[in-house]
Structure formats: structure tokens, C-alpha cells
Amino acid sequence: MKPKNPFKLDGAGPLPEKAIEALDHFEASRRDFLKTAGVMMIGFGFGAATAGAQSPNPSGNVDATQVDSWVVVGADESITVFAGKAELGTGMRTLQLQLAAEELSVPLDRITLILCRSGVTPNQGLTVGSLSTMTQFGTGGLRVALDTARDALYQLASQRFDVPVSELILQDGVFGVKGRGPIGNTVSYGQLVQGKRFSLPVNSRAVPNDPSTWRVLGKSVPRVDIPTKAKGTFEYVQKVRVPGMLHGRVVRPPTLGAHVQNIDNSVLNGLPGGPQVVQVNDFVGVVADTEWHAINAANALASGITWSAGDTLPAQTDLYTYMTQQPSRDSFSVNTGDVDQVMASAAKTITAQYRYPYQMHGALASSCAVADVRGGTGQTATVKVWSATQGVYNMRAVLSNLLTIPAANIEVLFVEGSGCYGHNGADPVTHDAALLSQAVGKPVRVQYSRRDEMTGGEHYGHPMVSNEKVGLDASGTIIAWDCESILMQRGEGAAIGNAPGNGIPGALAGFPTAQVIPSTTPPNNPTAYSNGTNIVPSYVTGSVNGVSFGTGTIASQRVLLRVVAGPLWTAWLRSPDRLQNTFAHESFMDEIAASLKADPVQYRLRHLSDQRFINVVNIVTQRARWDTRPSPKGGNPFNPGNTGVVNGRGFSCVLYEGLDGYCAMVAEVRVRVSTRAPS
């Protein structure tokens, strides 16, 4: 039977005209949703059956240890799955649908997927770090909940037919019995559950379906969100509208560190839209009846604010020198204690420095959020926000601190934005909207302009200085590697520590920002190995306490991270710090190979010990038809006298995050010498 699904909440299609009413129907609370779905409690041998919907949790949390928090089977054969990993443009929505369809043995279109709504979906933290698939397929994610439900359904069918589970066959959510005809010998999920609930704890040891039986997972499934995105009908967060909604605009300080001295509200006199000024310490904004009126009011208000002098920034040309001179918080990733001694015995040493600038996220579309804060502050106030945040529960905790409202009174609804690439303006714009809404007591929508995005919401990717040094023996083999990475930070985003002051709006509103506390003593040696930022080169043994965890052969190693306080706000950008570190290590390997006139691929292989890594390197270079040769390749001079096109090939490899995927790549670049432009 086709499940009844009068409106979609999975982002796969457009919402109806009264989208907000549909959202409210689902999102008012988990209890209301379950009541409207007609779902009741039922015991599967783990306790007495309980009639009625699950009692609401006064904390506003969802018990992730219970199957019913993850999956609901309706009497109409509908299947609703609740998941806590957001769609950020990577296809995670489709993957979670595939996982549910596969483990429950039903077609993909039988699943309605509810993503990331506080108080409705389980708290699975932030959607970050390429870890969502690993999480959902692991022993604490969606997969085990689905498999627990599947096993319970098998048990019900076994009881129904009075046969062992091994005698059952399952297809498209319908059980049958081996060797029996279909008449009178089939039963569906909906018929088994009868509109009741599982009332079962999640079994972390539940066994997944055998990959040899997969019909959906491991297949090329079209992403469910692409058709409506291609047609321009997808419901992004920018399209959210709430009855009675006003529009807000923030006015940031003209320079970092500036404070409000005076605000002349008279500059708004006579402007249309009934603009209202909102000030919370150095956080300043306006609210009006339309976005255009808010824009005009904000532009006018900017001329009426007197600010103090701001911070003095280091000269851009001296940024990297400035970074190396700042006091730092230091830590070792590896340190065998013999690097200086081994380096002194080397036949040759090579050093290099690599510098990586601040990187802007540069979101495809300017960030947007809607907040509805009612009742001011305290125990009776309520909050509802629509946000493209990477973590609805983290956002709830931050808003609780920012607004002084209990977390249980706050609902955060994830609505997809136009891509993410790390911590773009999705969180700051939500904080802006919440502060403005709290001040005026009505729902407020804030959408950044491009200027707002780049100056008021942007938390830049980290700049880094990498100092590299190796010692070589007489044969050119590396016998010691010494690496120092200097990383600049500020704030890192309010989701870090659920602290409003770690983001721009909260800091302007007067909340403290976490500070980089410099080390006063030399750092201790590590007690455990971690290479989550790829700060440890692929070519060392990764030795901690005499045990090797790395992928290389170089036994003498020292990797030091120095974190310094920076002038610009920072937070994670896609693959935070992995790009910087890998760029430095791989560029250095190329320079070492070139100094020895060695082939850069063969030179890398000489220092790798992980056979899987070696196999990846060999397969990639074979398929790319790598031309083994001394480095740099001759006969292709890049000089002013050469006016033609020169070409070159480069190679790079890494075990991402030290455990999360072997990668090797060959790049071929053609450049026209006269213009220095790609050809």
C-alpha cells in the first residue's frame, strides 16, 4: 500500500503554499506528531505495553536509546525515520534514505525522512568532518536502530505464523513463509505493528543486512533533492515565511574591536516601514516591515552611530612574520626525543617554509534565518528558529545562553541552505535573528547581503605557517623529520563550547570570547596518537610510547603545533587544517625529491610502510601513466624566453585524518608562459 504523505518534509520536493502550517504540524512537538500519526506504545517482550503517545520530555530531548526515537511504522504502511545528520549539499539526505530502505527492506519511496529538529530527532551532534556516514552506519547511529526495528518485526512475524525466523522471507516490507503460497501467508509491517510503537531499546549489536543482498545501498541512486534544486522550486531556508514576520538588518562595527559610543535614532525619522533600533551592548540592528525598508533603515542608522577606535591589525605583508612572533599554546603530536641528535648526524639537511593565508568561505548564497522569540526572557519565554545550522541541539544550547531562555523552551528546525563548506554564516545569522526577535517580540527574518556575509558573519579558515626540516643520509633517505605548524585562531564559532561569545553576534552582545592561553612550559609528549588534522606527515612511523601508528618508515620525528591568537574571526572551513598541513608536507616531499633529482612518486614510496597506501599510490600512477623520471622533468623550461605552452605533472597522496580514506592524485597542468595563465 502506498503510504499517505500529504506533504514532504524531506526536502525532496516543494512544500505546499501553506508551508509553515505543514512544518508546524510536524514540528510543534514529537508528542503532537505521534498523536497525529495515531501511534501507540507496544511491548516487544521487553516490558508491558503502554497505551497512548510517549510522554513529552520536559528537557526537550529525545531518548536516542529507544527505537521509537528513530523509526515509526504507521498503520497505513508509512515509515517515518528520524535522523540527526543534516544535508549540507553532500547527498547525506539520500544516503540516510538509502540506509533506511535497505535495512528495512522496503522501496526508497516508502520512507519519509525527518532531519535535524530539536525535540523531534535524536541529538547526533554537529554534521561535520565527513563523519556522518561513519556515524550512521556505526554502532551508535541510525543503522542499529533500523536493524533493531527490523529484528523486532521478524519476531512478530515469527509469532504470527508460528515458524522460526529462519523460515521467513521478506520483500518490500511484507513477510511470507518459505514454501507456502501467498494466500493467507503474508503479513505487512503495518499489519504487524497495528499503529503501535516498538517500546524497545536500541541494540547496538544488531547485525546489518548482508551486503550481498543489497538492493539500494551500494547502488547509484539519484539524489532526491536534485530535481527540485535544478528546477528552482526547492525550499531553502531563504524561502521560509512566518505569519506576522518582520525583517531585520545588522549594523556591524566599521573596524574590529570598535565599541558603540552613541546612537542617534533620529536618523530614522520619516523612514517607511516603522523601523525599530535594537541595541545589546555593541550589537546593533534594525527591524522593519519589509526587507527593503530594513536595508534602508540600516544604511541610515550606520551614519548615526559613533564608534570608538578599533584594534590595530598587523600589516598584511607582515602577517606570517607576525604569526611566528606571537606567544603560543603548544602541543606535540609525535616526539621521539632524538630528532636533534639524528639531525646532527645527517649527511644533508633541507628546510622550507610554507604559508597559507586566511580563506573566506564565500557561500554561494548569502546566509539567512528566521527566529520567533516570544515572552522576552526567562522560564516562560519561547523560541522557534529556522536555520541552516550544522547542529540543531548545539544551536539550541547557544541560543539558551544568548537569550537567557531554558533550552527546553527552544525549538530549532534545520532548513537547508545553499551549501556549507564549513562554518559559514548560518550560525551567526541565526543569532542575529534571535537577538532582534527577542527585542521586538515578533518573528524576524534576517538575510545577509554579500557585504554582511563577508564582514559580519564570516569566520575565516585558519592561516598557517609550516616550518619543515628533514635530515638525509648519504643515500638521500630521510632519517629525521621536524615539523612546526603555527595556526592562528579567534573564536572558532559559538558551537564550540556552546558559548555565544565565540561567534561575532554573541561577542558584540557582550559575551566573552575564548582566548588562546599561551604555554608557560614546554609541551608534554603525547600519550595517544591522533592525526585528525594530518599534521603528522604520511612518511613517519607515527610513534607514541614506542608504538607506531603511522604509515611511513621515518623513525625519528617531531611534530609541534603552535596555536596563536589572531585578529580575524576563524572557524572550520571544509577539511580544516588538513589542506594546510597536507599542502606543506607534500610540497616539501617534492622539493626534497627535486634536490636529489629523484622521481617524486618513487621517492615517496621509499618512505611508506603501509601496504594499502603503497597499493593506492601504485594503482593511481599506473592508471595515470606516470612517467617515472628525475625531478624536475627536463626539456620544458619555464622562462621568459619560452613564449609557448609548458606542461607539468604533479603527484600527492595522504591517508586522510590518519584513518579516514587513502587518497592519491596526479594533476597535469598546462601554462602559457607569456601570460602565466592556464592553457
How would you characterize this protein structure?
The protein is of the alpha+beta class and about 675 residues long. It has four domains: about 20-230, 2-Layer Sandwich (Aldehyde Oxidoreductase, domain 4); about 240-310 and about 360-455, Aldehyde Oxidoreductase, domain 4; about 315-360 and about 460-495 and about 510-585, Aldehyde Oxidoreductase, domain 4 (2-Layer Sandwich), CATH 3.30.365; about 605-679, no CATH class. Helices cover about 25% and strands about 20% of the residues. The chain is globular.
Write a compact overview of the structure shown.
The protein is an alpha+beta fold.
Strand content: 15-25%
Largest sheet: 7 strands, mixed
The top-level CATH class of the largest domain is Alpha Beta
Q: What oligomeric state best describes the polypeptide chains here?
A: single chain
Task: Return residue spans where pLDDT drops below 50 for at least 5 consecutive residues.
Answer: 1-56
Number of strands: 25
- Spatial ordering of strands, largest sheet: 9-10-7-17-14-15-16
Question: For the residues shown, what is the average pLDDT?
Answer: 89
CATH topology of the largest domain: Aldehyde Oxidoreductase, domain 4
Computed Rg? 29 Å
Distance between the termini: 58 Å
Number of helices: 17
Which architecture of the largest domain per CATH? 2-Layer Sandwich
CATH superfamily of the largest domain: Aldehyde oxidase/xanthine dehydrogenase, molybdopterin binding domain
